[in-house]
């Protein structure tokens, strides 16, 4: 019995003086070693996992590449607010563009290369678009064209005759046919070719294809003219404060002054009267 007591005492002494040995045994028994904990910077917590013990760190290191959910939400919200601000800004900018009337008729445009595919390119003085403040409307004093084929034929014949007579191009900026389509002649970037009309650098000349001295154009031509003016303003090729004019022949003012074409245009916004033409 004395020998057994000495053995137990020695065992207790070794456990007190050997923290490593105590730690190993305590791990097997599921206890936490206080002495070992004093030498560790991060205490270890032993948990049971499928019959085995594993250690978890109580203090996990933060991942430097991880984005905090709150910060991510704030960035997304800021981006949404910026997009909403851009949309509102564009909408307010569009509201500043004055429209002379609500346009229900769509704008149809046939560009010059679609009807004139010949090697002679358009050569005309460049139009100062920032200074364009006038629109002069006149009729072509010719036969009507009620479909695209006839309207294109009229433009081609006029281009040929102008080139043969004076080596110049068709003088109109645009023409509007009875089919309700706008045809580009010299366009928005070139000066008109009428030597007897004023403001070559500040004016767009629009021809209504047909003879409208005693009768008015079709309603679709008037509607297309409105759509053309609105489109010109939208393209920043015409000032929203433009002035609308008709052309009067100086040698026959009484006749041209009552031309049926202008009986409706005189009631339009921005109408400013007639300009005189010098040709008979």
UniProtKB/TrEMBL annotation:
<dbReference type="InterPro" id="IPR006619">
    <property type="entry name" value="PGRP_domain_met/bac"/>
</dbReference>
<dbReference type="Pfam" id="PF01510">
    <property type="entry name" value="Amidase_2"/>
</dbReference>
<dbReference type="InterPro" id="IPR015510">
    <property type="entry name" value="PGRP"/>
</dbReference>
<dbReference type="InterPro" id="IPR002502">
    <property type="entry name" value="Amidase_domain"/>
</dbReference>
<comment type="similarity">
    <text>Belongs to the N-acetylmuramoyl-L-alanine amidase 2 family.</text>
</comment>
<keyword id="KW-0391">Immunity</keyword>
<dbReference type="GO" id="GO:0008745">
    <property type="term" value="F:N-acetylmuramoyl-L-alanine amidase activity"/>
</dbReference>
<dbReference type="GO" id="GO:0008270">
    <property type="term" value="F:zinc ion binding"/>
</dbReference>
<feature type="domain" description="Peptidoglycan recognition protein family">
    <location>
        <begin position="107"/>
        <end position="249"/>
    </location>
</feature>
<dbReference type="GO" id="GO:0009253">
    <property type="term" value="P:peptidoglycan catabolic process"/>
</dbReference>
<keyword id="KW-0399">Innate immunity</keyword>
<dbReference type="InterPro" id="IPR036505">
    <property type="entry name" value="Amidase/PGRP_sf"/>
</dbReference>
<protein>
    <recommendedName>
        <fullName>Peptidoglycan recognition protein family domain-containing protein</fullName>
    </recommendedName>
</protein>
<dbReference type="GO" id="GO:0045087">
    <property type="term" value="P:innate immune response"/>
</dbReference>
């Amino acid at each position: 019995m004395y020998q057994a007591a000495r053995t137990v005492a020695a065992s207790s002494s070794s456990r007190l003086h050997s923290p490593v040995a105590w730690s190993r045994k305590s791990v097997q028994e599921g206890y936490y070693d206080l002495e070992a904990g004093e030498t560790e910077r991060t205490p270890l917590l032993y948990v049971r996992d499928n019959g085995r013990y594993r250690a978890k760190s109580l203090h996990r290191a933060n991942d430097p590449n991880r984005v905090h959910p709150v910060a991510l939400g704030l960035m997304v919200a800021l981006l949404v607010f910026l997009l909403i601000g851009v949309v509102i800004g564009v909408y307010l900018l569009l509201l500043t563009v004055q429209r002379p009337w609500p346009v229900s008729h769509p704008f149809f445009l046939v560009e010059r290369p679609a009807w004139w595919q010949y090697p002679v390119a358009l050569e005309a003085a460049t139009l100062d678009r920032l200074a364009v403040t006038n629109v002069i409307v006149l009729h072509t004093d010719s036969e009507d064209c009620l479909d695209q084929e006839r309207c294109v034929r009229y433009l081609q014949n006029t281009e040929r005759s102008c080139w043969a007579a004076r080596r110049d191009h068709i003088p109109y900026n645009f023409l509007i046919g009875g089919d309700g389509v706008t045809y580009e002649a010299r366009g928005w970037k070139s000066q008109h070719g009428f030597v007897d009309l004023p403001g070559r650098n500040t004016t767009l000349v629009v021809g209504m294809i047909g003879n409208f001295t005693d009768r008015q154009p079709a309603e679709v031509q008037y509607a297309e003219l409105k759509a053309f003016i609105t489109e010109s303003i939208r393209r920043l090729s015409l000032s929203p404060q433009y002035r609308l004019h008709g052309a009067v022949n100086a040698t026959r003012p009484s006749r041209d002054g009552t031309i049926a074409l202008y009986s409706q245009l005189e009631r339009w916004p921005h109408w400013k009267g007639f300009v005189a033409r010098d040709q008979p």
